[in-house]
Amino acid sequence: MDIGSLLNALILGVSIASIWLIAALGLTIIYGAAGVINMAHGEFIMLGAYSSYMLQYYFGLPYLLCIPASFVIVAAVGLVLERGLIQYLYNRPLDTLLATYGVSLVLMQGVRLIFGSDPKYLAAPALFSSNISLGFASVSTFRVVILLVTALCVLGIWLLFYKTRFGVQVRAVMQNKEMAASFGINSSRIYMMTFALGAGLAGVAGSLFGVLAIVLPTMGASYVVQAFLMVVTGGGSLAGTVVASGVTGQLQSVFAFFSNDTFARFLIFVLIVVFLRFRPQGLFAQAGARR
């Protein structure tokens, strides 16, 4: 066995895990905090990619500035969606699922009408097109950038939810909305802000994915399934999503090393189905039931 190739596969597994994780972060926040199954999450990712494309090619904004700008733009879209539609559908999971699916179709067709169906491309700085040599293995510089951005997002979310007053309010609303209201916490405002935050993180993911692949109106569908798998497998918590993404990313890379990428994905999906059959609550179940 070629040790260098195996090490390269393990490093690639970390890269795959970071991609899956950043795609799932926003969904984790929206589902964990508000209990909303957001079927439009993939289209939020797509909007992030198109936002970066628009800013880069029409306004000449450098790519590194397009990433935070995409967060702001998609977060604003999420805020409008939550205020205009989602806030009326809380505690109605089937209605929310159908409504967000309809929104995903509207967003997809709207982008197709504005930008067309032809593929678009994001240009990353030339510095990110090189490879970093790590002894026996090498890794793309841009994949390292994705890993660093993902780590910063996870750290920022952890600090926000566990080291700030806002985080305490979010966790209080998650546990018991009525009790939180008795302490003066505005649950409607909390839901609005968490939905916008989750949408903004999807925009960041789209800005990154637009460099790895072509930008298309349908690109979100290829990421949303993976994002849902990570959230469900992790149990709907931030820690669970991080662990689920890390484990599945490494397993997919190792399986692909011994077979091929298609068969590796098949094995991953089978393992997830079997795991959820015996532990439907996921890796880290929520501490208490939502009220």
TrEMBL record:
<keyword id="KW-0029">Amino-acid transport</keyword>
<keyword id="KW-0813">Transport</keyword>
<feature type="transmembrane region" description="Helical">
    <location>
        <begin position="254"/>
        <end position="276"/>
    </location>
</feature>
<keyword id="KW-0812">Transmembrane</keyword>
<dbReference type="GO" id="GO:0005886">
    <property type="term" value="C:plasma membrane"/>
</dbReference>
<dbReference type="GO" id="GO:0006865">
    <property type="term" value="P:amino acid transport"/>
</dbReference>
<feature type="transmembrane region" description="Helical">
    <location>
        <begin position="223"/>
        <end position="247"/>
    </location>
</feature>
<feature type="transmembrane region" description="Helical">
    <location>
        <begin position="195"/>
        <end position="217"/>
    </location>
</feature>
<keyword id="KW-1133">Transmembrane helix</keyword>
<keyword id="KW-0472">Membrane</keyword>
<feature type="transmembrane region" description="Helical">
    <location>
        <begin position="57"/>
        <end position="81"/>
    </location>
</feature>
<dbReference type="InterPro" id="IPR017779">
    <property type="entry name" value="ABC_UrtB_bac"/>
</dbReference>
<dbReference type="Pfam" id="PF02653">
    <property type="entry name" value="BPD_transp_2"/>
</dbReference>
<feature type="transmembrane region" description="Helical">
    <location>
        <begin position="93"/>
        <end position="115"/>
    </location>
</feature>
<keyword id="KW-1003">Cell membrane</keyword>
<feature type="transmembrane region" description="Helical">
    <location>
        <begin position="135"/>
        <end position="161"/>
    </location>
</feature>
<dbReference type="InterPro" id="IPR052157">
    <property type="entry name" value="BCAA_transport_permease"/>
</dbReference>
<dbReference type="GO" id="GO:0022857">
    <property type="term" value="F:transmembrane transporter activity"/>
</dbReference>
<feature type="transmembrane region" description="Helical">
    <location>
        <begin position="7"/>
        <end position="37"/>
    </location>
</feature>
<comment type="similarity">
    <text>Belongs to the binding-protein-dependent transport system permease family. LivHM subfamily.</text>
</comment>
<protein>
    <submittedName>
        <fullName>Urea ABC transporter permease subunit UrtB</fullName>
    </submittedName>
</protein>
<dbReference type="InterPro" id="IPR001851">
    <property type="entry name" value="ABC_transp_permease"/>
</dbReference>
